[in-house]
What does this fold into?
Amino acid sequence: MKTMNFYRNTLIIIAILLFGSIYAQQEPNYSLYRYTMNVINPAYAGADGNTSLTSNFRSQWISVEGAPETQSFFYSQPIGDKIGVGISLVGDQVFIERQTSFNIDFSYRLQISEATNLFLGLKAGGNTYNIDRDNLANLGFQPDPALSNLDTGFRPNFGAGAYLKHEDYFVSLSVPSILSSERIDESEGRITQATEEAHVYLSGGYNFALGANTEFRPSTIVRYVSGTPLSADITAAFRFYKRFEVGAAYRTDEAFAGLMMINIADWMDIGYAYESSTRNELSNVSNGTHEVLVRFNFKKKSD
It folds into this structure.
């Protein structure tokens, strides 16, 4: 029975990730996207005025063999009054693929008004890409000979972004990976090569004061990849005493999430999100998606 469940789950994950491009995103999504902006937008480096180190772990579709897992680490700090720098390291594993990216971010601040700043950013780095070809045979697939020629070495990358920040709202636009690269795909039972397209991210949010100690913080992020439908997260969250935040989100490609952030101390924040798919092929075999975030603030911006 366990063997049959293993093969059933494996076939499901292959169909969803490699064949079902109408739903799939090639880069990882984050439910806590307001707090992982460094990964997708280089303009965010140093934009909050803090020096911080953040770790994020996301495990999708628990109990499904070969489901995506993503570990992200990013460091950010302002330098002087105008410049910000950041470093990000992201490891992403799904099915037989493993990709690790390393990037350095640079941002420059333009003051628009007393309460509004525009940050412009550039990202440079690259990634390594590997596939476990031997595991295809274990799963009963016959790989295409083209896979033997797939480049698994270092691939350079550069990206760009803009981040408009007001004390009450923000708007973010970025393309974190402009250069396309090869990956694998599945069509009609054949494993072949494919091209990973650039992703465009548009995000925004507003903070409404509901009282002296309560804020309503709606936000959204829209993702665009050539050849796939738009995907968007719509989030509604409440923040209390600038210490505790709780909210819910809906993703247009059929998922709901609950999330929270806790400011334990001036130097530490902890976040958690649980995501559940409404698609039958996932909800019947998966125990949901878990995302955990820990952020250390080394220098707190004065109020």
